[in-house]
From TrEMBL:
Domain HTH arsR-type: 2-100
Name this protein carries in UniProt: ArsR family transcriptional regulator
Stretches that traverse the bilayer: none
Record flagged with keyword Signal: no
Keyword DNA-binding assigned: yes
Entry's Gene Ontology molecular function annotations: DNA binding; DNA-binding transcription factor activity
Pfam families named in the record: HTH_5 (PF01022)
Keywords: DNA-binding
Phylogenetic lineage: Bacteria, Bacillati, Bacillota, Bacilli, Bacillales
């Protein structure tokens, strides 16, 4: 097989194909190798004309010829060189989208209200004690790589880098989250609500608090008997609505989000009035199955 492109080096091949006579020669040679004299007789052309066409097919790499001694004479035998040609056309280059990206460690919340079970940990150790919300004020919480609570919320302030004269197209938020059960419970649904600038985008029902095996990145000191990993969720707020992992979450569009000149405020909440109050675990870099913090992107034009 020959795989071609639009590179100009393939012009002899394309030129070789641009002839009804030469295409017929290829069809005849597909039946069996033939000499120039036989091809000329079958085409009703002179041997000189057929020789010219054969040379073009040779130059294009489509046939090969060899001199063969036969019946007391020398014959130029032509045969196919390839059985298939595939042409790769140029792929349309997607226009690069302009975006700003901020990676927010899970401990960099600016407001919170949490209720047990709750806690935080760095990649090396627990921060304070289990189930004591006071430690959410602890300065070391800035180094937290995992946090969890039974109900309540955490809120993050994120710089707004969209400039005057730029139009906001889309907000994309990605994070690893799951429920929060005492210990581990695979079946522990929780309605996790997402807000941007106090606008409710919708909620996702986490199926449980996963513990079937350890998280790929979970530190060795972390107990087996507690939360190990979550689900990577991607939220997109667009001009058509809000989508979670590509599925429509709500009718909230980018135009429905109140814009502050300086910041975006992201809130993750499990309210007490939810149908499933199963808490929230938020995994950052060095915990769970995805080595990442909260990623907040703003696309603009």
């Amino acid at each position: 097989m020959i795989q071609t492109t639009t590179d100009r080096k393939w012009l002899p091949l394309y030129e070789a194909l641009a002839s009804d006579v030469r295409l017929t020669i290829l069809e005849l040679l597909a039946e069996q190798p033939r000499n120039v004299k036989d091809l000329a007789a079958m085409l009703g052309l002179s041997s000189a004309i057929v020789t010219m066409h054969v040379k073009k097919l040779e130059k294009g790499g489509l046939i090969v010829t060899e001199l063969v001694r036969k019946q007391g004479g020398t014959h130029k035998i032509c045969s196919l060189a390839v059985a298939r040609i595939e042409m790769l056309l140029p792929q349309q280059v997607e226009q690069q989208r302009i975006f700003d990206e901020v990676s927010i460690p899970v401990g960099h919340y600016t407001r919170f209200e949490v209720h047990p079970t709750c806690g935080l940990a760095t990649a090396e150790h627990m921060i304070g004690q289990f189930d004591d919300p006071r430690y959410f004020f602890e300065p070391e919480r800035m180094h937290a790589r995992i946090l969890w609570f039974g109900r309540g919320f955490v809120e993050y302030s994120i710089p707004n880098y969209v400039l005057a004269g730029q139009m906001l197209e889309e907000i994309e938020i990605s994070l690893e989250i799951g429920s929060e059960a005492p210990g581990v419970q695979e079946n522990w649904p929780s309605d996790i609500h997402f807000y941007v600038n106090d606008t409710l985008l919708g909620y996702w029902t986490s199926p449980g608090d996963s513990g079937q095996g350890r998280g790929l990145l979970t530190p060795a000191w972390w107990p087996d008997s507690t939360n190990q990993y979550g689900w990577l969720k991607v939220i997109r707020i667009t001009e058509e609505g809000t989508f979670l992992d590509g599925q429509r979450l709500s009718a909230v569009t980018i135009k429905d989000i109140r814009v502050s000149r300086n910041e975006w405020i992201l809130r993750l909440e499990v309210p007490e009035h939810a149908a499933h109050v199963g808490g929230l675990t938020l995994y950052g870099e060095g915990f769970g199955n995805y080595n990442r913090d909260i990623i907040f992107r703003t696309y603009k034009r």
